[in-house]
Specification:
There is one protein chain. The chain has two domains: 274 residues, Vaccinia Virus protein VP39 (Rossmann fold, 3-Layer(aba) Sandwich); 85 residues. The N terminus is likely disordered. The chain is built from eleven helices and 14 strands. 32% of the residues are buried. The chain has an eight-stranded mixed sheet, sandwiched between helices. The two termini are 43 Å apart.
Length: 371
Amino acid sequence: MNNPALLNEQHYINRILLGDSFEILSSFPDDCVDLIFADPPYNLQLNQALWRPNNTKVDAVNDAWDQFDSFAAYDDFTRAWLLAVRRVMKPTATIWVSGTYHNIFRVGSIMQDVGFWILNTVTWFKPNAMPNFRGTRLKNDVEFVIWAKYDERSRYTFHHHLVKQFNDFSAGKQLGSVWHIGATSRAERLKDDAGNKLHSTQKPEELLKRIIVASSNPGDVVLDPFVGSGTTAAVAKQLHRRWIGIEREPRYVAAARERVEQTQPLLPNDPLIAGATREKPKRVPFKLLIEQAYLTVGQTLYLDKPEHEATIIENGQIRANGFVGSIHRVGAQLKQTPSCNGWKHWYFVDDDGQRRQLDDLRNAVRATTKR
């Protein structure tokens, strides 16, 4: 396996690279990327022009790069690029793949075939999506984004609390998998010299902001193997991530480079940056509370619901109702639940005779450690 440190900062990092993704990725070392966003060709298979009721032509996705001879050819292409990016992913990295109903189900199946473990499928609802002018089917007002980790057992970054701010339906609550984001606005849309939209599938910055904030940290390397108009690179720069974009169309590369050059990073104290860099609390083993005399062997602990009493034993475990184990394991067994945060559900009696959460003692140990 190649050394991840060999990824050349000068040649690759914070660059929009012109060329074929397969060729460029083959020069990367293994395990060098923290996050991937990919918006591959959709294989829309448009066989004729689309017209509005007022006889104006729809500027649809009919680019040569979106054309494939068959489903089999598209599947071969998909498998090849997924394997190429998986090789350069760190085992702790995740990948997000955007698509429509034309391709996303084929892509998802192949992702599973090559070893990815799917975490979520985001339904991106676009309230300003173009209608179905012929009235022959439902309006296509959603796209899909598959989020997957390297394999079934791999660990990964997820800023669960930080992304609550993006909940479109219940502010401050856990972010769900339906995202209400308009299609790319006129203000964001890149135009060519004739005033027409430069890229037919330019993604809104809000979409990439959520993805990058959710699943990476400042300083991480974000790769987009089909970077197009440069949205991924621009948002990554804004959010203090390092980035690599690959694109084979020269006109897109030129526009993306200019766009990223004009993008300014957020201030370091911005909540989107500071929230991701905040130091994680120090892990405190339960046994340490006994060693530092916060608790004693033989002392009684109290479970909240259902009410049970447990006795602390010498090895730093507890015994209750025939169960022996950690505060988490015994708590889960008594509650008959898959898991239990023992710090939050077990109580002790303090010197004033008041019941208090074990978490209070854990925080006291942390405070002492910082001094």
